[in-house]
Known about the structure:
InterPro entries: Endo/exonu/phosph_ase_sf. The chain has helices spanning 14-26, 97-110; strands at residues 5-9, 31-35, 46-48, 54-58, 67-73, 76-81, 84-89, 118-123. It has one domain (5-124): Deoxyribonuclease I, Chain A (4-Layer Sandwich). It is built from two helices and eight strands, in the order βαββββββαβ. The strands form two sheets. A four-stranded mixed beta sheet has the order 1-2-4-3, with no helix packed on it. By secondary structure, the chain is an alpha/beta fold. The longest helix has 14 residues, at 97-110.
Amino acid sequence: xxxxxxxxNINHSARAQDLLFQSMAEWxxxxxxxxxxxxxxxxxxxxxxxxxxxxxTSRSVAGSPAFADVVRGRGYVAALVGDILVVGVYFSxxxxxxxxxxxxxxxxxxxxxxxxxxxVWDLASPGSIGxxxxxx
Length: 136
């Protein structure tokens, strides 16, 4: 099954979240990884992490894939979409490299990916000097 994916950081903006849905409809996007969502509504079209920092959403139209085998933690959420594992991750660029390494260790420990599954990872972090981002 071919799916179209989109990643967006909407900076907790209600208007940006509305535009995300408009873009998903216009571009025929099946699943979006949303960093810093305005809110994560209840329902089958949304799954979010434990802290409200990152979420996955799908269009509520016929033929859109459902989320299965959802795994969520602090700053990450993963779900199977058909035979593809989609993983959304958010980590603040204001935290240390040591914090990042601990965080990745936790995410990889909970990774539901198994042999034979394809996975799509999205690390939604705007950048950090410690990770090689340019200084201002």
